[in-house]
Write a structure and sequence with these properties.
9 helices, globular, 8-stranded parallel β-sheet, binds pyridoxal-5'-phosphate
Amino acid sequence: MFNKIVAELEPFGAKLVAVSKTKSTQEIMKLYDQGQRIFGENRVQELVEKAEILPKDIQWHEIGHLQTNKVKYIASFIHTIHAVDSLKVLKEINKQARNHNRVINCLLQFKIAKEESKFGLDYESGVALLESIKENPKEHIRITGVMGMATFTDDMDQVRKEFKTLKSIFDQLKTNWFPDDELFKEISMGMSGDYLIALEEGATMVRIGTLLFGER
Ligand SMILES: *Cc1c(COP(=O)(O)O)cnc(C)c1O
């Protein structure tokens, strides 16, 4: 399955985030030995425990909603944080990254699903957040793109529509806020059930767990 997915991503030039939450370090090492280096987790404590044990060239991504008080535990090593949706958490990431003399990549999470989800920005609040950053530059974070989760549904037209929404948010932000910033380039969308649609709609990173590791 791993090789099949890697081959599917190849023509799109998209990156695979192997979502290893609840899976053992042995299971992670199986994929590592096949060449995978980007792994995603959602729970901070689990992430920290795994990162301590596993090879240092793994690029760890925090994909879940991150509470402000947990940022300090991952700031020394985390590569990308996917679900940033407030100035409060961005400020904390900046502060903790500064303590470690690092720059942490952050993706702004936008709410694209129809269903009631607690997390994610709408376009206006995303713009407001970027305006605050512009007024008060944060040298230890780098906004590298956007992230979204589609509605949990079998209706693939709905899912496609939502991915198109995220792509259009990305395009607008790119034009208006990051025209010359080559590092603002990531669209993190698509999971086991919908990653092929996400790729067609412009995903640059897909987050896949179940298909790689089996049911949780
Ligand atoms: C668990 C999770 C995934 C992976 O989901 P699968 O359906 O197992 O591929 C992707 N993104 C986020 C934010 C997750 O929490």
